[in-house]
Structures are given as structure tokens and as C-alpha cells.
Design goal:
heterodimer, A: about 110 residues, mainly beta, about 0% helix, B: about 110 residues, about 50% strand
Chain lengths: ~110, ~110
């Protein structure tokens, strides 16, 4: 079965420290991977995606993600966290090259502590 | 600069009532999606469409219906509202399935 997992419901990081939000996936074929962020009472906003090419993908607001095929992971990272990064983060995967559906993880709430 | 617009933003329904959640996009996107978001459950796909006249079921289609008569509009219909349909509903669109989805700000629906 195709799936995406975010093993942490919540991640707490001190401001200025590096942050990592974890995501692992299971799909048939090559994955298309996405990260989205959701602020309170808003829809999801796109951060970055991996389709093919360089395993390190850079996105909005200083975020980046590393695709690791052997570990089937796509962790979201940022070198120095800001309080304004506090939000709900979703990893998503397109199930297959011929499937138009996107599967979302359950989300990880990121708290950046001042 | 509208993007994806959802109406209404809030609604309270009684059990058994029906309603239509409206979604429209002005980006000429082919793909449109309806999701529901429940606390701690992430997003669940209800229905999606890859173009006008074409719709398909997602993970949780029971109790809902959709239509796609134009590229711009993708309304979601609840025929007989049930308490289990209390949720936040998001509409999204994209140019292709491998392109980022653009989301509306959601409709918060309570069934009492």
C-alpha cells in the first residue's frame, strides 16, 4: 500500500537552532514528494518539492529537504529556526507516475521556542 | 490575485440537511481536489477532477458528490448531513498532478 508517515506529532526547537521534521514514504515507482505548511485558519501553502535530480531541494522561507531513496525519506530541514516558523507541516507524496492523487501525512506541529 | 476561493467560510447544519460547498479558481488549472481535515488525521481526499466533465473518488467519498461543469468551478455537495461530516473542508487546484497544489482557506462545517 502507498503511504506517507510523519512519525512525530510535535517537534519543539529553540529559536536559532537547526530543525528537522521527518517524513518517510512508501510508493510504487518513483515518488513525487512535497512539503506544505499550514498556519492557523488558513489553507496549506507549498514549500518545496522533489521530482527528480539533486537530492537536496531548496524551497521557500529558507527551508530545504533531503531525498534519500535508500531510506525512503524526505526530511524537512532549516539551519536556523525562527519563531515565525511555528506551524503545522505536511509531507505529501504522489502515489505513482500514473496516479493523479496526492497522499498527505498526518502533519507535524512545529513549535519554535523563543 | 484571487487563487482558490471557497464559500462559505463557516456553516452550521442540522442532521439531514443538505448543502453545497463552493470552490472556484482563476488560474486555469486542470486539476481540482476536495479534502477534509480532521484534528490529528491530516488531509483525506474526498473527490478530485482532472478536467471539466471528469471526476473521480478519493479515499473518503461516501456521503458526498461533486460535479465539474467548468474548469473554474468544483462544488462539493452534501446530501444528508451527518455528525461525522463535521470537519474543515479544503479545495485545492493544480496545473498538473506533479505541480504544487494551491489551497483555499477552507470551509468550517459543523453538523449538529
Amino acid at each position: 500500500a502507498q503511504s506517507v508517515a510523519q512519525p512525530e506529532d510535535q517537534v519543539n526547537v529553540a529559536e536559532g537552532n537547526p530543525l528537522t521534521v521527518k517524513c518517510t514514504y512508501s510508493v510504487s515507482g518513483n515518488p513525487y514528494l512535497f512539503w506544505y505548511v499550514q498556519y492557523p485558519n488558513r489553507g496549506l501553502q507549498f514549500l518545496l518539492k522533489y521530482i527528480t535530480g539533486d537530492n537536496l531541494v531548496k524551497g521557500s522561507y529558507g527551508f530545504e529537504a533531503e531525498f534519500n531513496k535508500s531510506q525512503t525519506s524526505f526530511h524537512l530541514k532549516k539551519p536556523s529556526a525562527l519563531v515565525s516558523d511555528s506551524a503545522l507541516y505536511f509531507c505529501a507524496v504522489r502515489a505513482s507516475n500514473r496516479d493523479d492523487k496526492i497522499i498527505f501525512g498526518k502533519g507535524t506541529r512545529l513549535h519554535i521556542l523563543p | 490575485n484571487a487563487g482558490v476561493t471557497q464559500t462559505p467560510k463557516f456553516r452550521i447544519l442540522k442532521i439531514g440537511q443538505s448543502m453545497t460547498l463552493q470552490c472556484t479558481q482563476d488560474m486555469n488549472h486542470n486539476y481540482m481536489y476536495w479534502y477534509r481535515q480532521d484534528p490529528g488525521m491530516g488531509l483525506k481526499l474526498i473527490y478530485y477532477s482532472v478536467g471539466a466533465g471528469i471526476t473521480d473518488k478519493g479515499e473518503v467519498p461516501n456521503g458526498y458528490n461533486v460535479s465539474r461543469s467548468t474548469t473554474e468551478d468544483f462544488p462539493l455537495r452534501l446530501e444528508l448531513a451527518a455528525p461525522s461530516q463535521t470537519s474543515v473542508y479544503f479545495c485545492a487546484s493544480s496545473f498538473r498532478a506533479d505541480r504544487p497544489q494551491h489551497f483555499g482557506d477552507g470551509t468550517r462545517l459543523s453538523i449538529l
